[in-house]
Specification:
Layout (H helix, E strand, L loop, with lengths): L10 E4 L5 H12 L3 E6 L4 H14 L3 E5 L5 H11 L4 E4 L14 H29 L2 E6 L12 H20 L5 E8 L5 H14 L3 H9 L11 H11 L11 E4 L7
Parallel strand pairs: 1-2, 1-4, 2-3, 4-5, 5-6, 6-7
């Protein structure tokens, strides 16, 4: 069976989508014909211009809606303002690195709120819309750290493990409906944020770009290559296809072999 993803008439809401993985997914779903709701916590001219640019390129409707994913009420309001949500991509996330005894309580609370609780709130608001429409896809962006751990990232790893658990529960609660829920677990993805870190890391280790990427940044990624935002988008589009209708409650690792170790 050919994998053809035609999302015409569907609306995709993607949290944290004015850059990086979220933006890559938004572009790919728009190319597949879905109308798009972009989101972040800012409300700048460039946010709305980004939406207009994707709309022009893909020939679909694209809106930008500001919502702070650390606040449950705003998470739910995002879905209400969208008006429809056939595809929900929970992507918003932040990170902080510190040992557990030194981990700031405010950072713990923020990471759990944005990386985990926001997905609960948006899913709770979106599922009734999906049920009314008779079709739905919940795609949660977890991480290789949703399946394994590293030191000094307690809140992020706890949140991403929680996202995997939330995904499974969502899938079980919708198992007899035409709604699926899955988690994509990326390893290191070459986003603008990661790209910006490379020069400083080169200076810190006195290494070439290639050596920094291979031996520092991708030390746990056996492929020694970054995943791309386009690959994240393609994976999300596949999960929206008819070919993936019986894929639910699982994780899709896009990590260059990280979790095979």
């Amino acid at each position: 069976m050919a994998i053809i993803t035609d999302l015409s008439g569907k609306t995709a809401v993607i949290t944290g989508s004015n850059s990086g993985i979220g933006l890559g997914i938004a572009r790919e779903l728009a190319r597949a014909g879905a109308d798009i709701v972009l989101n972040s916590f800012t409300d700048r001219e460039e946010d709305h211009a980004l939406a207009a640019g994707i709309a022009e390129d893909a020939g679909v409707t694209v809106r930008y809606i500001k919502a702070d994913m650390s606040k449950g009420g705003e998470c739910r309001a995002l879905i209400e303002k969208a008006g429809a949500c056939d595809i929900l991509v929970n992507n918003a996330g932040i990170q902080h690195v510190a040992a557990i005894p030194d981990f700031p309580v405010a950072k713990w609370d923020a990471i759990i709120a944005i990386n985990l609780s926001s997905a609960f709130h948006t899913t709770a608001a979106a599922l009734p819309l999906m049920r009314a429409a008779g079709w739905g896809r919940v795609i949660n962006i977890a991480s290789a750290h949703g399946l394994t751990a590293s030191p000094y990232k307690a809140a992020y790893i706890a949140a991403k493990h929680g996202i995997v658990g939330l995904t499974k529960t969502t899938a079980l609660e919708t198992a007899e409906e035409p709604i699926t829920a899955n988690a994509i677990c990326p390893g290191y993805v070459l986003t603008p944020l990661v790209e910006a870190q490379i020069p400083d890391t080169m200076k810190e280790y006195d290494m070439s770009r290639e050596d920094v990427i291979r031996n520092v940044m991708l030390t746990r990624q056996p492929s020694k290559e970054f995943a791309t935002v386009e690959q994240m988008g393609g994976t999300a589009a596949f999960l929206c296809s008819d070919a993936a209708a019986q894929i639910t409650g699982t994780t899709i690792s896009v990590d260059g072999g990280w979790t095979a170790l």
